[in-house]
Automatic annotation (TrEMBL):
The keyword Signal applies. Residues 152-163 have a biased composition (Basic residues). It comes from Mycoplana rhizolycopersici. Residues 164-173 have a biased composition (Polar residues). Keywords: Signal. This is Uncharacterized protein. Residues 1-24 form the signal peptide.
Length: 225
C-alpha cells in the first residue's frame, strides 16, 4: 500500500516541477503593450482592449528579476453573431513578445469569445474578454472590466431642462429679510380721559375779582348798607 502512494506522490511532484519550469520560462516583465487590429475589428474593441492591457501591465510586479519584453497584440477576424446566433461574438488574438532588440521571443494565437447583444455593449464585452484572456495567459495583474453604459433618464431630463425654467428660477424675487418687530403700546382708559391742566393767563378782571374788597367809605353820595 505504501509503494503505490509514494509513486503517485513522486508523479505529482514531477508534474508540478515541469509546470513551474514551463511557467518560469514564459514569465516575462511586460512593461509596454501595443494593440493593433485589421479592418474587421471594431475600433472601440481595439481601444478598450489596449487601455485595459496597458493598465494591467503597469500594475504588475514580479517577485524576482525576469527578462523585460514588449507585448504586441494583433486582433483579427472579428465575427458578430446574427439571427439565432445574435450576441455570440469572437475575434482571433495573436500575441508576440519581443526583447529589447525587437526580436520575437515567443508567439501565441488563440480565439476569444464573448456573449452580449447591442453594439456598444458587445464591443465592451469582447474587449473585456480579450484583455482578461491575455492577462491570464501572461500572468498580468487582474483586468478591471470596462463598465457597460446604462440609461439614466433622470439625469438626462435634468440635462435637457429648458433654459426658461433655469432663468425663472434664478430671477425669482428674494424674500425680504425679517425685521425686528417694535412693541405696540396701548394707552389705558384713564390716560385717554384725563384732561391736561393748562394755566390760563390772569386778566385784569380776574385779578380784581380775586383781590380783597376795599373798605366802604360813607360820603354824601355813597351809602354803605
Amino acid at each position: 500500500m505504501l509503494m503505490p502512494f509514494l509513486r503517485a506522490s513522486f508523479a505529482a511532484l514531477a508534474m508540478l516541477a515541469l509546470s513551474a519550469a514551463a511557467h518560469a520560462e514564459t514569465l516575462k516583465d511586460i512593461r509596454k503593450v501595443s494593440v493593433a487590429a485589421d479592418a474587421s475589428v471594431s475600433p472601440a474593441v481595439t481601444k478598450l482592449a489596449a487601455q485595459q492591457l496597458q493598465r494591467a501591465a503597469r500594475s504588475t510586479r514580479r517577485p524576482v528579476a525576469v527578462p523585460r519584453v514588449v507585448m504586441d497584440v494583433r486582433l483579427s477576424n472579428e465575427v458578430r453573431g446574427r439571427g439565432v446566433q445574435a450576441g455570440r461574438n469572437s475575434a482571433d488574438v495573436t500575441v508576440v513578445l519581443r526583447d529589447g532588440a525587437g526580436a520575437p521571443v515567443s508567439s501565441e494565437r488563440f480565439t476569444v469569445n464573448s456573449f452580449m447583444t447591442g453594439n456598444k455593449a458587445a464591443d465592451r464585452a469582447l474587449a473585456n474578454a480579450i484583455a482578461q484572456r491575455v492577462a491570464i495567459a501572461y500572468s498580468l495583474a487582474p483586468v478591471r472590466a470596462a463598465p457597460v453604459a446604462r440609461n439614466r433618464p433622470a439625469k438626462a431630463q435634468r440635462a435637457h431642462r429648458p433654459a426658461s425654467s433655469k432663468t425663472s428660477a434664478s430671477q425669482s424675487p428674494k424674500k425680504p429679510a425679517a425685521t425686528a418687530i417694535e412693541p405696540v403700546i396701548i394707552p389705558s382708559e384713564a390716560a385717554l380721559t384725563v384732561r391736561p391742566r393748562v394755566r390760563k393767563p390772569k386778566t385784569e378782571a380776574n385779578a380784581n375779582a380775586g383781590a380783597a374788597p376795599a373798605p366802604c367809605v360813607v360820603t354824601a353820595t355813597t351809602r354803605c348798607n
